[in-house]
Design a protein that fits this description.
Layout (H helix, E strand, L loop, with lengths): L25 H13 L22 H9 L5 H19 L2 E4 L3 H13 L11 E5 L26 H8 L3 E6 L12 E2 L3 E2 L15 H8 L5 E6 L5 H6 L3 E4 L19 E6 L2 H11 L33 E4 L11 H16 L3 E3 L6 H5 L9 H11 L12 H4 L7 H5 L24 H17 L3 E5 L24 H4 L3 E9 L3 E8 L5 H15 L13
Parallel strand pairs: 2-3, 2-6, 9-10, 9-11
Antiparallel strand pairs: 1-3, 4-5, 6-8, 7-8, 7-12, 11-13, 12-13
Helix pairs in contact: 1-3, 3-4
Amino acid sequence: MRPRSNAPGTSWRPRIVDGFHRKRHAIPALLSATLALAGVACNPEPDAGAAAAFPVVEATIGDVQAAIRDGRTTCREVVERHLARIAAYEDAINAITVLNPLALERADRLDAALAAGETTGPLFCVPMLVKDNFDTHDMVTTGGSIALADNIPPDDAFMVRKIREAGAVAIAKTNMAEWAFSPRQSVSSSFDTTRNAYALDRVPAGSSGGTASGVAASFGVIGLGSDTGNSIRGPSSHLALVGIRSTIGLTSRDGVIPLSFDRDIAGPMGRTVEDVARVFNVVAGYDPADPYTEAGRGREEEDYTAFLDADGARGARIGVLRALADPEETDGEILALFDAAVDDLRALGAEVIDPFDFDVAAELGREGMFCRRFRHDMWVYLQSLGPAAPLTDVLEVLEDGRYSDYAQASLRRNEGAPLDVHPSDWDEPCPDYAENDGRQAYLASLVEAMDAEGLDAILYPSWLCIPAHIDRGDEEYCGDNSQRVAPATGMPAITVPMGYARGTLPAGLQILARPYDEGVLFRLAYAYEQATRHRRPPDGFPEIR
């Protein structure tokens, strides 16, 4: 690494004095002030008729860029229209933590560059949402904790810098689970509870739920999230998005507030496979500030969009991991959607091995795969903030009460863990990913099993259960498959929409491949997406004037 009032029924309860707690009612005021400076209406009405303005609901990167180059819109208008959507609809889902006050100035510069004939980047004028654990030099970065409520980092995270260099506009930061602790919900002590845009009484999962609900409701064209065990793929599944967790070592985590540095991954979450591949082109690759990327140096593809082939499933050998689709553990409608997805891929010409027998439970039981390194990893991150760092040790929050009740147990688990000693040098060592014998054995065992069957990829449902009710997130939490293979093995996995349970609740199909086979993931996900077209926008967030 680089040296709101509470929602009804939520379990979040502030333990802090009013001097620290930023009330949820301050967010509409912030939105209003920022948009007023830009001359954008703060409460636009839904469009009752045909609108002349460029439509942004479900707009893709290609749609935006073609419309600007054809003169049908400008970058400024595209950014304004996304900001206006946030102003109109944010209060319903609480996805946004802070707006970028320089977003429209950035859009104007991009318009001027295009008019001057300058070369534009691959993400030219793409309004992007950024999870609140990515460092941004121009917006606060809290990691979901009130303890970092005033933390403005000295520079951008690697991925944020890369998307900006490619021409994107980071228009806002998004809410997350506090310290990324929860895969269940996205509840922070800094900005409260995010709701699922498809069902406001249900969770978006965690911890990248703000990015997921915001992108689903077209607050941005695409977004960035992070995934230690679930947090890109779970929320993407719950919000009918495409989300990819890359091979450990292919993408940098520099400047992303860590949860467990030997498992953390950062990456894009979007509405289409193509959009995710376009952003992945920009953010994948070596970064000297992240030592893990040395292993992946030179292993990224030149262009992941080259793998996007509507006939890309033909001839692929795909294994169905029935160990992660047990009928006794799986919601009946989710299982039916998964079986239909398997049939769809078979109809697309894939050779399906069903079942692919592999004992996930036994592999997860290996010793030495987990350790309490959050305190140390946070110490490294806080040092990177320099003398302005608001904390030296993340466990200081236990002394002054700056945490949500649900985060206390996770914080307490790190008491007694060494602070400034690398985990590999502890009395009971916690080795990094490449030196972790348990994980390397799991990886080798799974790849060997895939080799024996000649498989290109493995399938399973991203989540076995429908999204939980927001007031019963803990009791109804079940079926989180994303935790069980990719993080421990370091293998890449992508989730793509596979339909809706109960008519409106999204479900995701997860595809897992060998290390550095992200191209295979994009090829299969794209073929499935183009054949099925399951993605649809959530109700209640129509186009606005």
